[in-house]
Specification:
By secondary structure, the chain is mostly helical. The chain is 54% helix and 10% strand. It is built from five helices and two strands; from the N terminus they run H-E-E-H-H-H-H. It has a two-stranded antiparallel ribbon. Helix 4 packs antiparallel against helix 5. The protein is flat, with a radius of gyration of 25 Å. The mean pLDDT is 88.
């Protein structure tokens, strides 16, 4: 006679760690990329005259020759959301309203920094991915208007990465807010 009171363990939800790691890698890459895109909006190069160093002695050249060296600096005063060369092209584009150019220029750097931080710490991951996608789409529209096909293709890759991250978002395990 067999005992019919035996219970079989009920399997719980299977954690697919490969998908979790894939999402984490995408999330971190997109976060770091976004964060540094935003930070670079505050950078600038300035030329500084420095004495030429004699390679054999390591001392300044005796003749007093000076060379210009470009030094990169970061400051709030350096902010340029849209590079000057592209801003001039946008200014001559009739389909791009001037007020939109000014607003987009002001918000681009902070928006990338904010979405990068949100993704990095896992705060509203889906919302920050959606915000990044909208930023990349807006940048794509601008580049299409000024006929920059290489930049459009480059942004298309970013859109694909964001879309892939959104598809894997259900496997997001390391977050502050899981729902968003």
């Amino acid at each position: 006679m067999t005992d019919s009171t035996e219970t079989k363990p009920v399997p719980g939800p299977k954690v697919l760690w490969d998908f979790t790691y894939a999402f984490l890698i995408l999330r971190l890459w997109l976060a770091v990329r976004s964060l540094f895109i935003g930070i670079e909006k505050y950078s600038s190069y300035r030329s500084v005259a420095m004495p030429l160093i004699d390679p054999s002695t390591g001392q300044p050249d005796a003749s007093g020759v000076m060379v210009n060296v470009n030094i990169k600096t970061y400051a709030l005063a350096n902010y340029a959301g849209i590079p000057a060369a592209l801003r001039d092209k946008f200014a001559h584009e009739p389909l791009f309203p001037k007020f939109a150019l000014v607003a987009f220029d002001k918000m681009l750097g902070p928006a990338f920094i904010l979405t990068g931080i949100m993704l990095l710490i896992g705060l509203g991951t889906r919302l920050s991915l959606l915000a990044q996608a909208l930023l990349y789409i807006a940048l794509t529209v601008g580049l299409v208007l000024i006929d920059q096909p290489d930049g459009v293709a480059y942004l298309g890759i970013h859109i694909g990465l964001v879309a892939g991250a959104l598809l894997l978002a259900e496997h997001n395990r390391f977050v502050v807010l899981k729902k968003w």
